[in-house]
Amino acid sequence: MRSGAGVLTDQSTFVGRAQELSAVRKLLGRSRLLTLTGAGGVGKTRLALRAAELLRDMYQDGVEVVELATLETGDLLESEVAMALGLRDARRDPMGVLVDYLSRKRMLLVLDNCEHLSTVCARFVDRLLRSAPRLQILATSRQTLRVSGEQVLAVAPLSTPDPGHGCGRTVREVARHDSVRLFVERAAGAVPGFRLNARNVAPVAELVRRLEGIPLAIELAAVRLRSMPLECLARELEERFDVLVAKTPTALPRHQTMRATMEWSFRLCSAGERRLWARLGLFPSGADLETAEAVCSGDGIDRLDVLDHLTGLVDKSVLVRDGSRYRMPEALRAYGCEQLPPPEERWLRRRYVEHYRDLVEEHRIDRMVPEQLDRYLLLQRELPNIRVALEMCLSEPALAPMELEAASAMWCFWLLAGAFSEGRYWLERGLERAPENGRCRAVALWADALLGLRQGQISTAMRQLEEFLAFARGEGDEKLIANGIRTSGVVAFYNGDAQRGLALIRESLALHEALGDLDGIMFNLYVGATYGSTEDPGQASEFGERLLALCESRRALVFRAYAQFALGVAHWNLGEHRRAEALLTAATEFTGRINDRWCLTQCLEMLAWLAGARDEHDRAAALLGAAHAMWQAVGTSPEWISYHAASHERCTRQARAALGRSAFATAFRQGSRLGPQRAAAYAVSGAPRERSARRGGRGSKAPVTTGAGGRRRPRSGTSPAG
Fold first, then answer.
1. Neighbours of 461 (CB within 10 A)
2. From CA 337, how far away is CA 330, in angstroms rounded?
3. By C-alpha distance, which of 506, 437, 499 is closest to 474?
4. How far apart are CA 122 and CA 114, in angstroms?
5. Strand order in the sheet with 33-37
6. Which of 161-175, 420-434, 568-582 has the highest mean pLDDT?
7. Degrees (nearest 5) of the Cα angle 398, 402, 403?
8. Three-state secondary structure of 502-530
9. Model pTM?
10. Exposed (0-12), middle (13-18) or buried (19+): which is 14, by Cβ within 10 Å?
11. E strands, 134-273, where?
């Protein structure tokens, strides 16, 4: 399972829980917060995800799922939820972004695995519910959140046959129990053809009863049928549990059972499998084969044996294979971490940190390379593991420079992912521990200044840039100097001094060209084409053309979309609308597909201007509404960006005058409800019938009504929301 938005479903089938699903529906009908509680392994997550899937149509704005098991610190809770919902926390306060986004949403938010962050989660949930009156939250946790208005549903284990079932009871009677159904289904996956019958009904009934109906325990036991007969499995479980449970007589029965099942499963693994299980416990979002080999081999695990051990753990249901990655249920991961001896844990942590420092450096996305998109997606997948590595560095003073290097190398990822607050969180914690006046510290100051500018922290960014440039000039490092001058140019644009900003960009560009630094050239061309377009659109167009040619020659797909956008800005300011629209449409298609909200938001905004310039004011209003919703999610506004402000105001004023306030508000509201994917599709395809009508196509003309001033606009049935 991964962090993210949307309803996630497990690849295995869902068994039973009809009463619990009905209870979830009823409780959400009268409460805005429902917490599913229960012991580890009891099936809270699967129940929540199944309920979310079934209830999706009840919520106008959908169901969003955020997994918190991979989050190691409550400091990042707000940023993690914002990122999972696709929001860019441009402001210093990601909670404000969430509140703005969710305040008018009729949505179900599922927060999975809250127990290790229970106090922070409680405050977070309480504020969200107070600020977003139509929001409902379904949480899973081993304990209640203790928030006002909280309803609690204790998730019990699956029903089991009473003692003696299977002796004198029919197969049909025993098979009615969900625990038996789950065992039989998983057993059939381990031993094709396995069925419940008169010969095996008694040991199956006794086995699931002994496992107290705990789903994870049943699954761990069922896969053992590959290596031993059912009768032997039942007997071994009975004998082993009597020994293991005796060790913890004061524990709650269900905790004893789950603990005993994990210990039993652990001991039945080979020595290599046990070591790998324990070492993989460090990876909250799992690992692929290459990572497992790099980090976990050595000291008892031969690198060539890692694949065999992974396969063995998958066969035993300890690991789940998800594409090329291997992940572990949270209860088993926590147990694995407990099995690491301190000396082994120390060298493993060092190797883990070094691996992710190297991975971040090797997969930088501020490089003009063909695999740029793959790098971005990889960093997204690995982010929970990277966070663990960063936290490990900060806990050991000797490793602090590694943390700062990695957090700084990710500056472009933090920007594109919209994780401004999280990037600054890691950078600023590292800066507190970094030695003075070193290159590592200077680069981190520069990266923090870049992120701070997006959050409106201009004065702070200026101070950081001064310190950075003082270091760069003292060292005579021309590349760092060029980077600092370029960022100073961005500050000048933010301060309204476009002439100075453009002069600094030209100066920085000349330095990067002298160095032959294509990456630095690319960033200068982008800033010059966008921010410089209002001051000198002709030169901005030249910058944009060079930028697009450079990105295409290097096959840098992510930067190519930004180049198309930047050149579109320049052509808009030159009045070359057809070329601008072609470029912006191409950028919209790509950024909508990869869910890059920052570029997509700006493209939607500009496509609204182009629609307005064609007197398609209804379409302009809808696109303004779609962009508005995303500007809010970004936490900024087109009025704050020099190359957006004037055209945004003009387009809005003209559309409102042409349509009338009521019709404008209706189209704007419909556009704001589209969501990013539907908004991108609407922007790219337009209203296909309208375009066909302009070309004279038969039968394709959209129905229209007449708005204020005699302008024609689509009826509500042909709105973008339809």
1. 25
2. 11
3. 437
4. 9
5. 63-67, 107-112, 135-141, 33-37, 151-154
6. 568-582
7. 100
8. HHHHHHHHHHHHHHCCHHHHHHHHHHHHH
9. 0.81
10. middle
11. 135-141, 151-154
Neighbouring C-beta atoms of residue 696, cutoff 10 Å:
8
Token pair of 470 as six digits: 């003082």
CA-CA distance, 473 to 324, in Å (whole number)? Answer: 46
Mean per-residue pLDDT over the chain, rounded: 86
Question: What Å distances lie between residue 385 and 280, 289, 344, 359, 381, CA to CA?
Answer: 11, 15, 19, 11, 9
Rounded to a whole number of angstroms, the CA Rg of the chain reads 29
44, burial (CB in 10 Å: exposed 0-12, middle 13-18, buried 19+): buried
Nearest to 1 by CA among 66, 78, 86, 85: 66
CA distance 382 to 85: 18
Q: Say what the pLDDT of residue 673 is.
A: 82
Closest CA to 295 of 332, 345, 337: 345
Q: Which secondary-structure segment (H or E) carries 401? A: helix 400-409
Helices within 516-641 (DSSP H only): 518-530, 537-554, 557-573, 577-594, 597-613, 617-634
Closest CA to 645 of 541, 538, 494: 494
- Do the beta carbons of residue 120 and residue 77 sit within 8 Å? yes
Q: Which of 497, 410, 412 is nearest to 462 (CA)?
A: 497
Name 353's Cβ contacts closer than 8 Å, sequence gap at least 6: 389, 392, 393, 399, 402
